[in-house]
Amino acid sequence: MPGLLERYRHIYQLDADYPIVSLNEGSTPLILASAVARHIETLYGVKDLKVFVKFDGLNPTGSFKDRGMTYAVSQAKKQGATHIICASTGNTSASAAAYGARAGIKTLIIIPQGKIALGKLSQAIMYGASIVEIDGNFDVALDIVRELGKTGRVTVVNSINPYRIEGQKSAAFEICDELFDAPDYHFIPVGNAGNITAYWAGYRQYHDLGKSTKRPKMMGYEAEGCAAIVLNKKIENPETFATAIRIGNPASWQGAVDARDESGGDIGMVSDDEIASAYQFLARNEGVFCEPASAASVAGLFKACQAGQVKQGATIACTLTGNGLKDPDSAIRLGEADRATLPADVARIQAHFGL
Ligand code: F0G
After folding, report:
1. Which ligand 1 atom is nearest residue 293's CA?
2. Is the distance from the beta carbon of residue 183 to the nearest atom of ligand 1 less than 6 Å?
3. What is the 3-state secondary structure (H, E, C) of the chain?
């Protein structure tokens, strides 16, 4: 498959000479998650759900950020930018650094020190970005990026750049194309709230174009320790082990509220324990290894079903935003490893496995 700007060129309406910077992002699998549906029926009695996970962790840099970055960096290139800059909890910086490398544009990154999953940091280093770690959280880093953007010498590629949201809409197009209609509900993690804003714009646009008969209820989930939108106040010291969504003042706050209100959906919060158990459930029962923040969507689905917010027989899409390999520390800490060290001896190993 070509990248998403090529795939949806008719919607993005790009000129023939538009300089697309692509790593063939998008076209990620929409995987039927029947174990999730069975679990919900057993625990909460909601029957006949068709649950799909949109595994955006299978993008070129391992997260959904590539969808927006292909467009933001293409546009930066078109405008002759020499530098791009972003604040990040890790994935945006990995993606910006990759697309920057591909475009021949220098990538500058500001990240909270000690709060970036190892895989993401290793990506930014390998792609050759210039990295500054600060003694402050993502919200502080984004404020600094906004200030530096005002110099006019760098292009900001956080989701305050409208091309990011435009590119990310494509995930909603793909889901509708594959299901031949929109789902009834869309569950999604919420951090800086760009992605829920983008999905809602994508679903609206497809509906307006007559490509779907309905629009889903948008169900967004923040982590409990940083639930700014749910609590309707900025969180000064956001905390969650799902570091990707460790954000206390989401830039697209209003976009998330509009998505909720216009779709008749909800923004809820899930605890770290709920995130961790959905994270484990997906790996052990579906064979899908996403990163912790991604599992907030499925944790939210469990919670909404328990609360009676989901109708029997519904079609449900859950975005899994990032790849589990991004955060090996969380996997090793929470994976309940069945591991042993034994001598290299057939009989001993046979006995150990009970064969
Ligand atoms: N899931 C993952 C894996 C993320 O990396 C992010 C955001 C989100 C969910 C939340 O998406 O911000 O659009 O609401 N990561 C950003 C980053 C903040 O810097 O990589 P959102």
Report:
1. 1
2. no
3. CCCHHHHCHHHHCCCCCCCCCCCCCCCCCEEECHHHHHHHHHHHCCCCCEEEEEEHHHCCCCECHHHHHHHHHHHHHHCCCCEEEEECCCHHHHHHHHHHHHHCCEEEEEEECCCCCHHHHHHHHHCCCEEEEECCCHHHHHHHHHHHHCCCCCEECCCCCHHHHHHHCHHHHHHHHHHCCCCCEEEEECCCCHHHHHHHHHHHHHHHCCCCCCCCEEEEEEEHHHCHHHHCCCCCCCCCCCHHHCCCCCCCHHHHHHHHHHHCCEEEEECHHHHHHHHHHHHHHHCCCECHHHHHHHHHHHHHHHCCCCCCCCEEEEEECEEHHHCHHHHHHHCCCCCCCCCCCHHHHHHHHCC
Best of 67, 218, 241, 245 for a ligand 1 pocket test (most atoms within 8 Å of beta carbon): 245
pTM, rounded to two decimals: 0.98
- Mean pLDDT for the stretch of residues 289-306: 98
pLDDT (mean) for 54-58? 98
Q: How confident is the model at residue 193 (pLDDT cuts 50, 70, 90)?
A: very high
Mean pLDDT of 234-243: 97
Confidence of residue 335 (pLDDT cuts 50, 70, 90): confident
63 ligand 1 Cβ < 6 A: yes
Q: Which atom of ligand 1 is nearest to the CA of 87?
A: 19
297 CB within 6 A, ligand 1: no
Atom of ligand 1 nearest to the CA of 290: 3
